[in-house]
Amino acid sequence: MDQDGTQRADCRLRETTPARRMRELDRAEALRLVATVSLGRIVFTQHALPAVRPVNHLVEGGDIIIRIHDDGALASLVAPADVPGVVVAYEADVIDPDTHLGWSVVVTGYASPVADAGEVDRYAELLRPWMAQPMAGALRIRPDLVTGFSLEAEGTRPASPARGRS
Fold first, then answer.
1. Which end of the chain is more exposed for a tag (fewer CB within 10 A), N or C?
2. Measured CA distances, 137 to 35, 41, 54, 66, 127 (Å)
3. Integer angstrom CA distances of residue 62 from 45, 59, 76, 95, 126
4. Whole-prediction pTM value?
5. How far from 86 is each of 58, 68, 103, 147, CA to CA, in Å?
6. Higher pLDDT residue, 130 or 151?
């Protein structure tokens, strides 16, 4: 195969990709997986262009909660009063760099600042900062569209839900 991805007739492909399949995740499984990791990426509009920031998060009641700082770009995400929030996308994944197996989830929804001071204080305890910067508040992303997939080795079956013990 040459550099532009075409295979020459006189060359053999030396490596083969192991058999794998892509399985679509339902909403509940996708949000459950997002809750198992603490890192994701928020995609938002800044100066009329798409911007992406890595952030830590938690999932609570189906919503994704992230920290915001006074001088950070995310602090400017304020929607007009007559809309449910600012449209954002949020992506989290776990993909093994060697096997290329794992999962990826994208949540599209509305982000709005958390208004309740008690909730903000609680989130400040739960969301660990990456830098020594005080937390100005929290942003709640209410998922509207949740899509995801799992890359699995061929022949594996998804884990069945845990069953109650007698």
1. C
2. 20, 18, 17, 9, 11
3. 23, 6, 24, 23, 16
4. 0.78
5. 19, 15, 26, 19
6. 151
Residue given tokens 């954002």 in the structure block: 88
Mean pLDDT of 86-94: 96
CB contact at 8 A, 138 and 126: no
Nearest 10 degrees: Cα torsion 156, 160, 162, 166: -110
Lookup: tokens for 146? 């949740």
Pair of tokens at residue 99: 């096997």
Residue 160 has which token pair? 């069945």
- Which residues face 112 on adjacent strands? 140
Identity at 28, one-letter amino acid code: A
Q: List pLDDT tens digits, range 34-74.
A: 999 999 999 999 888 999 999 999 999 999 999 888 777 88
Q: Which two tokens stand for residue 61?
A: 């009641």
CA distances from 123 to 46, 47, 50, 140 (A): 25, 28, 27, 11
Please report which residue ranges of 21-108 form alpha helices under DSSP H.
Answer: 27-34
Closest CA to 67 of 124, 147, 148: 124
Is 130:53 a contact under the CB 8 Å cutoff? Answer: no
Q: DSSP character for 96?
A: -
